[in-house]
Amino acid sequence: MVDPTDADYVELGEASSPKLDKYQNVSIIPLVFLIFYEVSGGSFGVEDSVRAAGPLLALVGFLILPFVWSVPEALKTEELGTMFPENGGYVIWVSPALGPYWGFQLGWKKWLSGVIDNALYPVLFLDYMKSAIPDLEGCFTRTIVVLVLTVALTYLNYRGLTIVGRVAILLGVFFLLPFIFMGIVAIPKLEPSRWFVVGFGNMDWGLF
């Protein structure tokens, strides 16, 4: 068992901390939208949840999930980020406990999962858009649009955090405006009795 405090095993603190003045800063509003895209990216799946279990269980799930998942994740990140005030995230947190090998493995798998996850967003976006633009269902057109979106987003990331934060705000407003508009339009048609409908007879637990 290697002593986690051994400097040859893992370096923490001032010796390994990068100089923060070399990095671009991001203000609070872009940061909020960047976190929004990291954990959600939109209201994808809301309709499926209601269809799978009914309005009541969907609403209960949306109310409970922040307390059983989001709050513990936030507290864990706060504690570990305070304990290890360095750039590196998961890698910095795991290396002192399990060694640099497993720290590298976690960083590599997190990067790989991010690549796979990010590849889904252009496809989801096109699935929503093809209802308004039927030509997007064609294989060639769809492929070209996915490639263009991928190259554009890659270029934005290459340009740096500042421009990514600004674009995140624009895209966030663009994606949220339809939900806000539809919510306002739906107010006169609200029927609270429908909120308590539970579809036990046709429950799709896997989808829910």
Protein described:
Keywords: Cell membrane, Membrane, Symport, Transmembrane, Transmembrane helix, Transport. The longest helix is centred in the middle third of the chain and has 30 residues. About 7% of the residues have low confidence. Helix 1 crosses helix 7. This protein has 208 residues and is mostly helical.
Q: Which structural traits does this protein have?
A:
208 residues, mainly alpha, 7 helices, 0% strand, globular, transmembrane, membrane, transmembrane helix, cell membrane
Would you summarize the structure shown here?
Helices cover 65% and strands 0% of the residues. It is an all-alpha fold and 208 residues long.
In helices, the fraction of residues equals 55-70%
Helix and strand sequence: HHHHHHH
Q: How would a crystallographer describe the biggest sheet? A: none
Shape: globular
Strand content: under 5%
Low-confidence runs of at least 5 consecutive residues? 4-18
Broad structural category: mainly alpha
| Whole-angstrom Rg | 22 Å
Please give the count of helices.
7
How confident overall, as mean pLDDT? Answer: 81
| N-C termini distance | 44 Å
Counting DSSP E segments of at least 2 residues, the number of strands comes to 0
GO molecular function: polyamine transmembrane transporter activity; symporter activity
Transmembrane segments: 23-40, 52-70, 139-158, 164-187
Organism: Rubroshorea leprosula
Membrane topology: Multi-pass membrane protein
